[in-house]
Specification:
The protein is built from 19 helices and 28 strands. The longest helix has 29 residues, at about 435-465. Helix content is about 30%, strand content about 20%. Helix 8 packs across helix 9 (about 375-385). It folds into five domains: about 10-155, Alpha-Beta Complex (Isoleucyl-tRNA Synthetase, domain 2), CATH 3.90.740.10; about 245-315, no CATH class; about 320-395, no CATH class; about 400-425 and about 440-540, Isoleucyl-tRNA Synthetase, Domain 1 (Orthogonal Bundle), CATH 1.10.730.10; about 550-620, Roll (Ubiquitin-like (UB roll)), CATH 3.10.20. Bound molecules: zinc ion. Zinc ion (ZN) binds near residues 177 and 230. Belongs to the class-I aminoacyl-tRNA synthetase family. InterPro entries: aa-tRNA-synth_Ia (IPR002300), Leu-tRNA-ligase (IPR002302), Rossmann-like_a/b/a_fold (IPR014729), tRNAsynth_Ia_anticodon-bd (IPR009080), Val/Leu/Ile-tRNA-synth_edit (IPR009008). Keywords: Aminoacyl-tRNA synthetase, ATP-binding, Ligase, Nucleotide-binding, Protein biosynthesis.
């Protein structure tokens, strides 16, 4: 599979003496016009032939094979060298080129020329042959007729072996017939359904699919010639075949006629946000994009790409204890001697602490049910969403007072709502406060409330940082707690803040928030702008910012806002990227901004406008700049002091 243009052709070279594993060497070239100029081949040191007993050392210390490749047209014998320095073409993943065989054409390539000179490869090309009278297209068609390549393809082409020896998988709809070979199952017999069998485990020893034992299912008549002894394919497809387009099926999941109706899926695709683990980023994303590109080329999908944005979420890790020989130790066998020393309680061996992916064999798993039983489901959600950016690894622990710290906040938060019905506050005598004072406090409260809405929205919109949003909501909670009792009793602004807080924290702790909302429904007798208290929490609108609240220009790198300035909201839509950059550069933060950019080796990448309240200038690492020191993402700086977790962004 590949994506993008077919920018070259494939070439097959027969070997002068076929080996047990190879009859051919296959490669790819973007310059088929130099086909007749090939004088030698390179293979990488990771090629199987480079590890065989065919290796000879030449005078100049370079290794070559004792067998040759044969030019697919001229039959010239081409020496094969083991060489990792040649250009093997585009890389599809880090350090991984698609090719491990490459052609040498000294006539048109200077590296090949000097290589040929150094290793005494004859560069003489007999240009009097009949091939030289033909144009490239004719040569390619000759290659195709000889079955030695000549097809347009991509340098990024990679194999995707889709067959698996598993029961659970989509059956491969092929019938094998002795007379006809591989015959597709007729369309009206699709889908092929899995038979019900007792033992669905494949034997790892034989490597044969468990379906091979379903003899009644396996035996079938050949749809082409009627042969009674044809056999169904017993391998099933790789799960990626299904997961590469499940999101299309989800949009039309009751369709009994076809996988999906294009008119339905095209209204909703592409997916706005795709959240997955790192393994998704590598394999699933590639396969899903490949299938979507295919569907697009067939006119089934209007969008070429399946996903607009992707967050590779970090893994949850647990604490492990390991002896020097790598043996994992359960926590109860670890004795703490001092801050830096832990030993095995029985063997007295020194034990090292690390954070690793949770696993039974490493004794570092945490059962979510235990936490839910101890703290409740909302609090467990809060624990998981707190502190860490979604992309970062989460080193999960209940040590270091993390749960206690959160519980304190939880109590303050709940109390804000409970005190609306608490008789103690009702009997409290009213303290004296002038109207002016009252208004001033209300105004400050409004500022705090709007600032929270702005920041929370910005964090979620910009980089889905629920953890940063929670920090802001905790700040608002603490602010509201300290508000004078008169304000709590009489200010509409205060009640509105309570509504805003619940609506914004609702998705994080939904059960508790809904519960607290019912208090507001009962206790608030006045009309709160923007809210309908007759409806439940999750039917409320997300809080909005008033027109007099200024918009902001932010400079963002990763999850850090390193410069920010207010700007009139009405002005924002009229500004171009250059205007916005200029505004920020002329601002008071200028020096601080410059320092941050230099320190982190950044360059401006793009502008992202979020509604009308915010313009974000996104900075990325400048690959041409080497930096000495690494920056810390925002969340790490704001992390609770008691947390000593190692976090990777
Ligand atoms: Zn047949």
């Amino acid at each position: 599979m590949w994506m993008g243009d077919c920018n070259g052709i494939n070439l097959l070279f027969k070997l002068s003496i076929p080996t047990a594993e190879f009859d051919f060497l296959e490669t790819f070239t973007t310059t088929p016009e130099s086909l007749l100029d090939i004088t030698h081949l390179y293979i990488r040191s990771n090629h199987k032939l480079a590890r065989s007993n065919l290796i000879q050392e030449t005078e100049n210390g370079i290794k070559r094979l004792s067998i040759n490749a044969i030019h697919p047209l001229t039959d010239r014998l081409l020496p094969i060298f083991i060489n990792d320095e040649a250009d093997y073409g585009p890389k599809i993943r880090a350090n991984m080129s698609m090719l491990n065989v490459q052609i040498g054409t000294p006539k048109s390539n200077s590296y090949d020329e000097s290589f040929a000179n150094k290793h005494s490869i004859s560069t003489v090309i007999d240009s009097s042959t009949r091939w030289h009278k033909m144009d490239t297209e004719t040569l390619l068609s000759e290659l195709r007729s000889r079955e030695l390549g000549g097809y347009r393809t991509s340098g990024k082409l990679s194999d995707w072996c889709i067959s698996r020896q598993r029961y659970w998988g989509t059956p491969i709809p092929i019938i094998h017939c002795d007379q006809c070979g591989s015959v597709p199952v007729p369309e009206n017999e699709l889908p092929v359904r899995l038979p019900s069998i007792e033992n669905i485990r494949s034997s790892s020893k034989t490597g044969i699919s468990p379906l091979a034992n379903a003899h009644d299912w396996k035996k079938i008549q050949c749809p082409k010639c009627g042969n009674e002894n044809a056999k169904r394919e017993t391998d099933t497809m790789d799960t990626f075949v299904d997961s590469s387009w499940y999101f299309l099926r989800y949009l039309d999941n009751e369709n009994t006629e076809k996988p999906f109706e294009p008119n339905i899926v095209n209204k909703l695709m592409p997916v706005d946000l795709y959240i997955g683990g790192l393994e998704h980023a590598l394999t699933h994303l590639f396969v899903a994009r490949f299938i979507q590109h295919f569907m697009h080329s067939k006119g089934l999908c209007t969008s070429l790409e399946p996903f607009k944005r992707f967050i590779p979420i970090g893994m949850v890790q647990g604490k492990t204890y390991k002896t020097s020989n790598g043996q994992y130790v359960t926590k109860d066998k670890v004795l703490t001697i001092d801050k830096n020393t832990m030993i095995h309680s029985l063997t007295k061996e020194r034990v090292e602490v690390d954070w690793e992916k949770m696993s039974k064999s490493k004794y570092n798993g945490t059962d979510p049910q235990e936490i839910i039983d101890a703290y409740g489901v909302d609090f467990t959600r809060l624990l998981m969403l707190n502190f860490v950016h979604p992309r970062s690894l989460r080193n999960f622990t209940l040590e270091d007072g993390i749960a206690e710290g959160l519980q304190n906040w939880f109590k303050i938060f709940i109390n804000l709502y409970v005190e609306l019905i608490d008789p103690r506050t009702k009997t409290d005598t009213k303290s004296v406060m002038s109207n002016e004072e009252f208004q001033q406090i209300e105004l400050a409260l409004r500022e705090q409330r709007l600032n929270t809405i702005y920041t929370v929205t910005f964090y979620i919109d910009s980089f889905f940082s629920v953890a940063s949003a929670i920090i802001e909501l905790q700040k608002l909670t603490r602010y509201l707690r300290k508000v004078p009792i008169n304000i709590k009793r009489e200010s509409n602004e205060y009640l509105r803040s309570l509504c805003d807080l619940l609506v914004m924290i609702g998705p994080v702790i939904p059960a508790l928030s809904s519960e607290l909302w019912t208090i507001l429904q009962k206790q608030i007798k006045t009309n709160i702008n923007g809210y309908d208290l007759s409806k439940n929490l999750f039917e409320q609108n997300y809080p909005s910012l008033p027109n007099d609240y200024p918009a902001k220009i932010n400079a963002l790198y990763d999850t850090t806002v390193f410069a920010s300035m207010p700007i009139a909201r009405s002005l924002l839509p009229t500004l171009t990227t250059t205007d916005i950059l200029q505004q920020l550069n002329n601002n008071d933060n200028q020096l601080q901004m410059k320092t941050f950019i230099e320190k982190n080796g950044l360059k401006f990448d793009r502008l992202r406008k979020l509604d009308d309240y915010c313009a974000t200038l996104i900075y990325e690492r400048d690959p041409n700049v080497t930096i000495v020191e690494q920056s810390e993402p925002l969340i790490e700086k704001k992390k609770s002091k008691t947390s000593k977790k190692k976090q990777v962004s």
